[in-house]
């Protein structure tokens, strides 16, 4: 599994909104300047995140974006699944049901199911608030699987 630029930038964008939340909407140009991400790219990301209800937006000169719920209520896995699609390590585990014709005799299925479970548990165990509160690796706080 490799997280694309879109997924990484979406997390940076959401962290930035959480860090700079003053109750008002944040303009894309401000996030763009702070995060060094093009406004065009941020527009694509915000469109997707807004569609799934993660952001609230207002148009106009005083418009912009803000989180639609507190940072503690966002799971990293949720954000990445919206921007990346399925995070399953193999195609047969991407849907709600494994439709593979070989699943009854697959000697590696349990391995892939275990890996998917670890990925899901880890990414859904980390919140946006956790990322905001985490300053550096040197502070002694590390995520463990």
Describe the structure.
The chain has 145 residues and is mainly alpha-helical. Helix content is 46%, strand content 6%. It has six helices and two strands, in the order αααββααα. A two-stranded antiparallel ribbon has the order 1-2. Strand 1 and strand 2 form a beta hairpin. The model has no long low-confidence stretch (mean pLDDT 89).
Give the SSE layout:
Elements: H1 5-19, H2 28-35, H3 39-51, E1 55-58, E2 64-67, H4 76-84, H5 109-124, H6 128-133
Antiparallel strand pairs: 1-2
Helix pairs in contact: 1-3, 1-4
Could you tell me the strand content as a percent range? Answer: 5-15%
Mean pLDDT score? 89
In terms of quaternary structure, the protein is single chain
Instruction: Report the biggest beta sheet as strand number plus sense, adding barrel if it closes.
Output: 2 strands, antiparallel
Unreliable stretches: none
User: Care to count the β-strands?
Assistant: 2
- What is the rounded distance between the termini? 17 Å
- Order of H and E elements: HHHEEHHH
Q: What gross morphology would you assign?
A: elongated
């Amino acid at each position: 599994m490799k997280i694309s630029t879109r997924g990484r930038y979406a997390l940076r964008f959401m962290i930035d909104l959480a860090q700079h939340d003053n109750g008002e909407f944040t303009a894309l140009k401000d996030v763009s300047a702070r995060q060094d991400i093009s406004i065009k790219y941020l527009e694509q990301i915000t469109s997707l995140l807004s569609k799934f209800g993660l952001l609230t937006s207002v148009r106009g000169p005083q418009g912009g974006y803000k989180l639609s719920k507190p940072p503690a209520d966002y799971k990293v896995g949720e954000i990445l699944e919206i921007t990346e699609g399925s995070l399953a390590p193999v195609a047969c585990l991407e849907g709600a049901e494994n439709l593979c014709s070989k699943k009854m005799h697959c000697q590696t299925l349990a391995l892939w199911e275990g890996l998917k479970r670890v990925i899901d548990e880890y990414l859904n165990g980390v919140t946006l608030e956790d990322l905001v509160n985490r300053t550096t690796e040197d502070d002694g706080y590390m995520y463990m699987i």
